[in-house]
Design a protein that fits this description.
mainly alpha, single chain, 139 residues
Length: 139
Amino acid sequence: MVAKKNGKKTQTVPMLKESAHDIWLAGLGAFALAGEEGGRLFRQLVKRGEGMEKVNKTRIHKLATRAESLQGDARQAVARLATPIEAGMTNAMHRLGVPTRKEIATLTKRVEELTRVVAKSKSKARKGRRAPKVEAVSV
């Protein structure tokens, strides 16, 4: 609204200045309040965060303990299931004439031992078979 020169203009300008000044002061007040409340709010958030951290650490510890327990239970269950399955597989392999891994390992050890024994006996036999001495014959 444009003020007239007769006196209303003089009243409108100070009113606008006062409103602008009030808005400026409200902004400064909001900034100060945000600074004060922000610090207080920050401290409250830190305090709540510390509480939540303690609660969550306890929960995590309980969950980790439970997971370890379940892991042990799972290992036992697998072992209980694996034993009959392995026995059945071993029986089936024996019926087909296929040796097991354990039997192959045992046979491999026995072959290695026999190879060492044979090698030793060969070296002893070589030492015992020396060339016969040729004696000079007089004619």
